[in-house]
Design goal:
Layout lengths: L3 E3 L11 H8 L3 E6 L2 E10 L6 E5 L2 E7 L4 H10 L1 H22 L8 E4 L2 E10 L5 E4 L3 E6 L4 H31 L6 E4 L6 E3 L5 E4 L7 H13 L8 H10 L11 H6 L4 H5 L6 E4 L1
Parallel strand pairs: 1-10, 3-5, 7-9, 10-12
Antiparallel strand pairs: 2-3, 4-5, 4-13, 6-7, 8-9, 11-12
The structure holds zinc ion (ZN).
């Protein structure tokens, strides 16, 4: 552990539409019809792909194939799998909506906010002071100076949540680093769109800000998971055995974590692959 970095601003940038992205990257978009629904998809040839795979992400379908593969075969494969693609998109939309619901609360009096796995009430009080104040006892108290905009309030609240998650993560990183005999790099908390956590090449760790809304055991699971990647970079048997060997009994193993995550709209599959939403199918 070296430095702690914090990203002060919430990611508010709009995601480009698939058509815009495709145009920017010069990718040709094709269309698939399922009943009355039209689903755009793209075809990508990759030097690194050794076989065909269909990747379904919210609002995006892509077929990746090895260089030299026949494009007509790929369109046929997509067509064959259209029902599967349609149902995956529906599941992903539902999951994305539920995940979005975790953080889409408005900061108003009486709002319930999920925090470390519990729903807590928020009270907003006016203050004469210049700065926004935040307190936490059995619920949240936000002190709002006259003239403070909603966005300022939200940014300050997110910063506060970030600090709480960092305070949860740091001792966990320390404990599991000792258990696993590994030396992690920097720790950062980020509002990541597609991952719960990540472990960079130099051992820098990032954790998703949304973890602060989930039970602490899940944060511990993600911390232990990422630190195990400092010993095994893959998801091999050795990786899972190592993770199992360090997690205490009260932490759900990856097979049993499903129940907790489903409440938050997430799946076992998503946490195993550290992905918040994407699904991948190989052919
Ligand atoms: Zn992993």
């Amino acid at each position: 552990m070296k430095l702690f970095s914090r990203n002060r601003t919430r990611e508010r940038n709009r995601h480009p539409l698939p058509e815009e992205k495709a145009a920017a990257e010069n990718i040709e978009l094709h269309e698939l019809k399922v009943g009355t629904t039209t689903i755009p998809y793209s075809v990508r040839f990759s030097r690194r792909a050794c076989r065909r795979r269909i990747v379904v992400r919210p609002g995006k379908v892509e077929i990746v194939a090895p260089l030299g593969d026949r494009e007509s075969e790929l369109h046929r494969l997509i067509d064959e799998r259209r029902q599967w693609i349609f149902s995956k998109l529906e599941v992903l939309k539902d999951r994305t909506d539920r995940l979005h619901a975790l953080t889409s609360y408005a900061l108003r009096n009486g709002t319930k906010i999920p925090y470390r796995g519990r729903l807590l009430s928020l009270e907003i009080h006016p203050t004469e002071k210049k700065d926004i104040g935040i307190e936490y006892r059995t619920g949240f108290r936000v002190y709002r100076p006259a003239g403070a905009a909603d966005e300022e309030l939200r940014n300050e609240f997110d910063m506060w949540l970030r600090d709480r998650l960092l305070a949860d993560a740091v001792p966990l990183v320390r404990r599991y680093s000792i258990l696993l005999d590994v030396k992690p790099g920097r720790i950062s908390i980020r509002d990541m769109k597609t991952r719960w956590g990540s472990c960079g090449g130099r051992g820098d760790l990032s954790f998703n800000l949304k973890l602060i809304h989930l039970p602490r055991d899940l944060t511990e699971y993600v911390v232990a998971h990422e630190l195990c990647h400092l010993r095994h970079r893959d998801h091999s048997r050795r990786f899972w055995d190592l993770l199992d060997s360090v997690l205490p009994a009260r932490i759900p193993r990856h097979r049993r974590i499903e129940g907790c995550l489903l409440q938050a709209g997430l799946s076992d599959e998503s946490i195993r692959n550290h992905l918040v939403v994407p699904m991948v199918s190989r052919h």
